[in-house]
Amino acid sequence: MPVDRCICRDISFSDLKALAAQTGADFKELRTATNCATACSLCGPYIRKMLATGETDQPLMAPAELTRWIDQSEPCCTSKPMPIMRAKR
Ligand code: FES
What we know:
- With 89 residues, the chain is mainly alpha-helical.
- It is 40% helix and 4% strand.
- Strands 1-2 form a two-stranded antiparallel sheet.
- Strand 1 and strand 2 form a beta hairpin.
- The longest helix has 11 residues.
- The protein is globular, with a radius of gyration of 14 Å.
- The chain starts with a strand and ends in a 20-residue tail after the last helix.
- The site of FE2/S2 (inorganic) cluster (FES) has 12 residues, from loops.
């Protein structure tokens, strides 16, 4: 199954690509404008790759490729951490 969107914000990479083309927005500016990559942030590497390559439907990345597209200088998440779900006993 290809990865084609920020699932948390329900924004497709095609829409993000169009917005970037219209405005010249980089990753941080797209994130600010749309809130993409601000919840779980798992889409971040895919959005960075989309901006670099134009690919909007991407196969799941292997860990080595994910590492390549993660910006180590940025926090991985800008929103509140998700609460940990605990099973009731
Ligand atoms: S998939 Fe984009 S923030 Fe979770």
